[in-house]
């Protein structure tokens, strides 16, 4: 439910006046986006000039992206999208002009940059110019949404550059992937980027099986969306496709997932959150449920120190022993680079002080994803351990950002 509160700046205006003000703010957002893009291009040009070509394109791109991510407190992916948008506006002059003038919306400009500046393969400059002119005119003279503009752009692109269509499709197919993104309330998003025909076939299969379960059980009040989701889980985790409601703890036998639970939660003395590997916090009830599940898929890991775990082997070996490896990954949970969420199980264990000058110990090891490990090693970013799992990174431009390990213990409510 919306709660309407009069604001001193708007309560004297008629409804049309408020809408006019909203449109004005939208235009101002576009102007700010153009200026921000100009700043991004200027920063990138300066870094490239200072580092020189010997740094290599990949490392230069990653250094620029990470400097922006750390300065703006956004993810690497968000910073990368900002760089691509800035580069695109640098190519699409008419789009940038229309955005700066307020005649084109920011979401519409993002569509044009996305469609017209793809390098899979590069569009011919003449084709791109004609496409841009047609699409900017369409977007600024018709009441179309960004989604409608994207569909028009895709149709025109296929019509005007049919020879490049197959190449773009083949390269896009090489980028197919599946991802899992945590959400609230013990839920997550499982997404797949697939060839269109495969995606539709998968969806239609799930839909058909979901609809077939309607009416089979008189007390089954699941919606159609939930039935499709359950059919997906059935197929992936049991090898069947029956669309039944999910069972507690059901999972494939060849998959092992860590559930980190404070020992006081297992004893029923606390309702502190647990941690599901690769996901994040889960409520105490679900943590206990998974920890005590008979299914061997779930591996219970307590957060109190285990006797006999080796946490320091000095400089006698580079690779940490299994106990130390597990300890550091459980402590860090994700890549320790500020803003990075790659699960620690998928990361390298990096010696903050390079081996053998630095020991293979819990206070000289952190989890770093391959991208951020490469930046720390080759691109002028430096890191420092500060004790108790605290860690900081210094960028080539002089910024210092400190992080601490995730708190695996009970959280106290903030003071009123």
Q: Please state the average pLDDT score.
A: 82
Query: What are the segments in which pLDDT stays under 50 over at least 5 consecutive residues?
Result: 1-5, 247-254, 303-313, 409-416
Order of helices and strands: HHHHHHHHEEHHEHEEHEHEEHEEE
| Overall tally of domains | 4
User: Approximately what portion of the residues adopt beta-strand conformation?
Assistant: 5-15%
Strand order of the biggest β-sheet: 5-4-3-6
Shape: globular
Tell me the number of strands.
11
| Helix-residue proportion | 40-55%
Radius of gyration: 26 Å
Structural class: alpha+beta
Main sheet record = 4 strands, mixed
Give the count of helical stretches: 14
Distance, first to last CA: 27 Å
Description:
- This protein is of the alpha+beta class and 416 residues long.
- It folds into four domains: 15-174, no CATH class; 179-238, no CATH class; 257-302, no CATH class; 322-403, no CATH class.
- It is built from 14 helices and eleven strands.
- It has helices at 15-51, 57-72, 76-91, 93-101, 106-116, 125-141, 146-160, 162-174, 196-212, 224-238, 263-266, 284-291, 322-332, 370-378, and strands at residues 177-182, 188-193, 257-261, 274-276, 280-282, 298-302, 348-351, 365-368, 382-387, 390-394, 400-403.
- Strands 5-4-3-6 form a four-stranded mixed sheet. It has a three-stranded antiparallel sheet with strand order 9-10-11, with no helix packed on it.
- Helix 3 (76-91) crosses helix 5, helix 5 (106-116) runs parallel beside helix 7 (146-160) and helix 6 (125-141) packs antiparallel against helix 7.
- The model is unreliable at 1-5, 247-254, 303-313 and 409-416 (pLDDT under 50).
């Amino acid at each position: 439910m919306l709660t309407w509160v009069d604001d001193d700046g708007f309560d004297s205006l008629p409804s049309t006046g408020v809408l006019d003000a909203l449109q004005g703010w939208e235009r101002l957002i576009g102007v700010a986006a153009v200026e921000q893009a100009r700043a991004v291009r200027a920063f990138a040009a300066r870094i490239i000039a200072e580092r020189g070509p010997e740094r290599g394109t990949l490392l230069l791109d990653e250094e620029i992206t990470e400097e922006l991510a750390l300065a703006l407190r956004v993810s690497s992916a968000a910073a990368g999208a900002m760089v691509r948008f800035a580069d695109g506006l640098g190519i699409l002059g008419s789009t940038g002009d229309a955005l700066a003038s307020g005649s084109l919306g920011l979401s519409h400009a993002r569509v044009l940059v996305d469609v017209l500046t793809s390098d899979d393969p590069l569009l011919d400059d003449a084709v791109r110019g004609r496409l841009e002119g047609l699409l900017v005119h369409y977007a600024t003279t018709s009441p179309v949404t960004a989604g409608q503009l994207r569909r028009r752009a895709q149709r025109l692109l296929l019509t005007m550059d049919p020879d490049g269509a197959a190449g773009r499709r083949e390269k896009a197919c090489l980028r197919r992937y599946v991802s899992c993104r945590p959400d609230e309330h013990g839920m997550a998003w499982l997404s797949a980027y697939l060839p269109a025909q495969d995606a539709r076939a998968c969806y239609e299969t799930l839909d058909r099986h979901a609809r077939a379960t309607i009416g089979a059980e008189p007390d089954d009040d699941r919606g159609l969306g939930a039935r499709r989701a359950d059919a997906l889980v059935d197929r992936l985790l049991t090898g069947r496709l029956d669309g039944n409601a999910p069972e507690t703890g059901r999972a494939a036998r060849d998959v092992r997932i860590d559930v980190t639970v404070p020992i006081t939660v297992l004893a029923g003395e606390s309702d502190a959150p647990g941690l599901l590997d690769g996901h994040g916090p889960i409520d105490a009830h679900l943590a206990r449920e998974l920890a005590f599940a008979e299914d061997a898929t779930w591996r219970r890991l307590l957060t109190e120190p285990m006797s006999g775990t080796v946490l320091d082997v000095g400089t006698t070996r580079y690779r940490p022993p299994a106990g130390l490896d597990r300890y550091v990954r459980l402590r860090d949970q994700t890549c320790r680079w500020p803003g990075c969420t790659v699960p620690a199980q998928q990361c390298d264990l990096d010696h903050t002080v390079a081996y053998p000058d630095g020991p293979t110990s819990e206070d000289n090891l952190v989890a770093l994803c391959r991208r951020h490990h490469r930046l720390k090693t080759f691109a002028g970013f430096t890191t420092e351990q500060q004790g108790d799992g605290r860690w900081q990174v210094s960028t080539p431009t002089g910024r210092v950002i400190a992080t601490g390990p995730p708190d695996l213990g009970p959280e106290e409510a903030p003071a009123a």
